[in-house]
Specification:
The structure is a single chain. With 287 residues, the chain is an alpha/beta fold. The protein contains ten helices and eight strands. Strands 3-2-1-4-7-6-8-5 form an eight-stranded mixed beta sheet, sandwiched between helices. Helix 5 packs across helix 9 and helix 7 packs across helix 9. The protein is globular. The two termini are 31 Å apart.
Length: 287
């Protein structure tokens, strides 16, 4: 049995596409949608799936509720503002035939226009920063992070820290610490809209990058897949990505923006010691 758990918030315009991308696939599974707003739940109910009204205390809290309700041996996590490829269930669950696999992550695909600066960044970061990095590390048997947009785990994690900024990173580490491997399913695609303006881009990246730096709070001696220095070491790959002069300029711009981002996160977390709730904000242009 497979449980597909969808967390959402004010995504009444996209939740149907998220649900239908799974309902068209074969297999024995249940779909459960959690949302704090009635509009999203109303649209989900039209598609005859299970729904839960969560209290709006954040995504980790909603996931904990969903995990308790799930009947599956395998849990697939995704969001209400993305949709998956028609083979995603099969591709995500096939690796679990190997008992050493505890989690499987999908491949995010940007839906944004590569001709714009932010659109180009989204393609570069998903194709180089995520896809090629996962391929390289899995080949060497190394730890990889699951993508919060779409990933699957064995039903062995019963509770997620509710103040976690990046629940996908926390879950990935919890699985790894239990002695399991994390697999990559590059043919399981999840289609994502990324931020359309710099303000939302910084909001999203501060949350994900800052959340990764928060891992020490929950995991002793965590794996370090992401850091400013690691990004710098493998940055040469980014220079192979541009197709024209405009994209070279966009690549240079990304370097300076990422430097500012990492500096800002270090200051907020280590010097100013800002509360996490001030760092966690919602990017609205991705909806």
């Amino acid at each position: 049995m497979i449980s597909i758990l969808i967390t959402s918030f004010k995504e009444e315009k996209t939740i149907a596409k998220a649900i239908n991308s799974f309902k068209k696939q074969k297999g024995e599974y249940e779909i459960i949608v959690a949302a704090p707003d009635n509009e999203t739940l109303k649209q989900a109910k039209k598609l005859n799936v299970k729904t839960i009204k969560d209290p709006g205390k954040g995504k980790p809290h909603a996931l904990n509720i969903l995990i308790k309700k799930a009947k599956g041996d395998i849990l697939i996590f995704t969001d209400g503002d993305v949709y998956s490829s028609s083979n995603s269930i099969k591709e995500l669950t096939e690796p679990f035939k190997n008992k050493k696999i505890g989690a499987v992550t999908a491949r995010p695909i940007s839906l944004d226009n590569r001709k714009t600066m932010l659109g180009y960044w989204s393609h570069l970061l998903t194709d180089i920063g995520a896809h090629r990095t996962r391929l390289r590390r899995v080949k060497k048997g190394k730890f990889i992070l699951c993508s919060g947009y779409l990933f699957a785990i064995r039903n062995i994690i019963k509770n997620i820290p509710e103040d976690a900024l990046s629940e996908d990173a926390v879950i990935s580490h919890l699985i790894w610490k239990r002695g399991y491997k994390i697999a990559y399913a590059p043919k399981a695609l999840v289609y994502v809209k990324y931020p359309k303006n710099l303000k939302d881009w910084f909001i999203q990246k501060r949350r994900s990058t800052g959340g990764y730096n928060q891992i020490n709070k929950y995991i002793k001696n965590p794996q370090r897949m992401r850091s400013f220095w690691r990004e710098l070491i493998y940055s040469y790959q980014a220079w192979l990505y541009p197709k024209n002069i405009r994209e070279v300029f966009y690549t240079i711009s990304l370097y300076f923006v990422k430097l500012y981002l990492w500096t800002k996160i270090f200051i907020d977390l280590n010097i100013r010691k800002k509360p996490l709730k001030e760092i966690w904000k919602r990017a609205t242009s991705t909806k």
